[in-house]
Amino acid sequence: MNCRTLPKSQRHQPQAAFTLLEFIVVILILGIITTSVTSYVRLGAGMYVDSTTTQQILSQSRFALERVVREVRGAVPGSIRVLSNGDNSISCVEFTPLALSGLYRDLPLYPQTRDWIGVTTVTTGWPATAGYRVVVYPTDSRHVYDLNQRRSAVVATLQNAPPDADGNANTERIQLDLISGVAPTFITESPQQRFFLAAQPVSFCVIGQQLRRYQNYGFQVGQSLPPSLTQSELMATGLFNQSTEPAFVLNTATLSRNAVLQIFWRFQPSTDLGQDLFFNHEVHIPNVP
Description:
Layout (H helix, E strand, L loop, with lengths): L19 H54 L7 E4 L5 E6 L2 E9 L9 E5 L12 E4 L5 H4 L6 E3 L16 E5 L18 E5 L3 E6 L2 E6 L15 E7 L10 E4 L7 E9 L9 E9 L4
Antiparallel strand pairs: 1-2, 2-9, 3-4, 3-8, 4-7, 5-6, 5-8, 9-10, 10-11, 12-13, 13-14
């Protein structure tokens, strides 16, 4: 029997394989790579969320600020007033929107009393809305809200004042409500014979972390924090003013300058960005009573 030896190339070769140490090293390397990629993705996602949150706060705060500024600038002169509680957790600005202005012709000046006033406007056929107030020469907020100051009167529900019959569509007579059973009287005149028709008051209040707008609560002699039993509209969230930071501060008018409403809002994003967002704005209010 012949024995044949296989060529060297056909002999059994040992198979290459990973050792346990090499396998562990591979696992460690893959773990490091996975951790690095995961951290990078998490960092990018966190930056995106933070950026989105910041943009949302900026958007809502700018909208709210623009809304407040526009409405305040359209207020009846002298009607703006501000009130905050002790720790500034509630801070409100209140004003009466200007519905109409013009010149009066027949004003019941003290000691005369009369339940109507004759006016001239550039708008024809305008309605005298019941509950609005006719205001003459308001140099202080009390002149608008307190009827006892004798600078304002309430528009009556029934407009049955005798017509002036002058054929001019821009002249009318506004019927006024009685004040404590007595026909209204005005204690002073306007240098320009100007009157203002004030709509129902509006308030913007920062309450805790919210900015809310209040309306349809009627005229009140004293300002409330906030107006009670009324409808409100949420304007912004995320405010974190400190106890030394009132949201609204009013510098009243003087002989040398107009009134200035200072608005200071501090916003904090919902995530920790390491910094707050501040809005410090001054609203110059023309006062031409």
